[in-house]
Design goal:
Layout lengths: L9 E4 L8 E3 L5 E3 L4 E6 L1 E2 L2 E2 L8 E5 L6 E6 L9 E6 L18 E8 L2 E9 L6 E5 L14 H8 L17 H7 L13 E5 L2 E8 L12 E8 L8 E2 L6 E2 L3 E8 L8 E8 L1
Parallel strand pairs: 4-12
Antiparallel strand pairs: 1-12, 2-3, 4-9, 5-6, 7-8, 7-10, 10-11, 13-14, 14-18, 15-16, 15-17, 15-19
């Protein structure tokens, strides 16, 4: 497999996804359509993350730096993508190509970022094969320009501006903005919070919670890790990680563990912890 070549942008190859679609023709024959390649990512112009409201920002795939586009995405045109762009690049297996905008494996395209003032960035992308999904970010976000402990992108996504108080609790759920960012919950919705379910049935104690992936605005390049912890004395403030259930990477999966029931003479307390790195 030929690797992709990128310039002035960061890229991480993700798992390929191939969708088969059968097309009917008058002759009665069926043909499997060629899967597109998908480029996606976030955009930062200057020090400002680009949001869906920036409809003047366009990402294009071109054969030459100034040539016509063979694929285009305008920010905000798909509300479900939020602050991400997604560029579907037609790819076919061999010549002659049926789609004049299609490319072949091995072709190099220019990925051009434009706004109302002109070209803001450019990367090159060499097509390794059909059906590849790859992330290509434009620019590097300032993680925390105001030094308040909250990433700028996260503040803008939830509050529309930076400069939020990390200790504030706008939804009055008992959790600060900083805690909401760490746990990946909505700082404006008191019904959304990181919670641990603890139940005792049939001589067993079951502890469970959902381990969320670190994704979305303010989490680029970060990993969220979870641990089950136990303590025999809350007053001591000492908690121990449960073997096999510490530093588990969140991937939107439920985590459940069965502990033996404790005796009345020596109660054991349980909790879940989460951190970002």
């Amino acid at each position: 497999m030929q690797s992709s070549k990128l310039k002035r942008a960061t890229g991480t190859t993700a798992a390929a996804c191939i969708i088969f679609q059968f097309l009917s023709f008058p002759s009665g024959q069926a043909e499997i359509s060629e899967p597109d390649n998908l480029l996606y990512g976030t955009i930062v112009i200057g020090t400002n993350p680009v949001t869906p409201a920036r409809s003047d920002v366009v990402v294009e795939a071109r054969r030459t730096p100034t040539g016509p586009a063979v694929a285009t995405y305008r920010m905000g045109s798909n509300p479900g993508l939020g602050a991400f762009y997604a560029l579907h690049i037609p790819v076919e297996a061999s010549t002659p190509v049926a789609n004049t905008n299609a490319s072949l494996p091995g072709d190099t395209l220019y990925i051009v970022l434009c706004d109302a003032s002109g070209v803001e960035g450019q990367a090159t992308y060499t097509i390794p094969e059909r059906g590849v999904v790859q992330r290509v970010n434009f620019g590097v976000a300032v993680v925390d320009s105001d030094g308040n402990g909250l990433p700028d992108a996260w503040e803008i996504a939830w509050f529309g501006k930076t400069g939020q108080n990390p200790n504030a609790d706008p939804d009055h759920d008992g959790r600060s903005n900083l805690q909401e960012w760490i746990t990946g919950t909505n700082p404006l919705d008191a019904n959304e919070a990181f919670s641990v379910s603890i139940q005792q049935t049939a001589g067993q104690i079951q502890v469970a919670f959902v381990a969320l992936r670190a994704e979305g605005a303010g989490y680029d390049g970060m990993t969220r890790r979870y641990s089950f912890q136990s303590s025999t004395n809350l007053a001591s403030g000492l908690w121990s990680g449960v073997a096999g259930f510490t530093n588990v990477i969140g991937n939107n999966q439920p985590l459940t563990y069965q502990f033996p029931a404790t005796s009345a003479e020596r109660p054991v307390f349980y909790r879940g912890s989460v951190r970002l790195e």
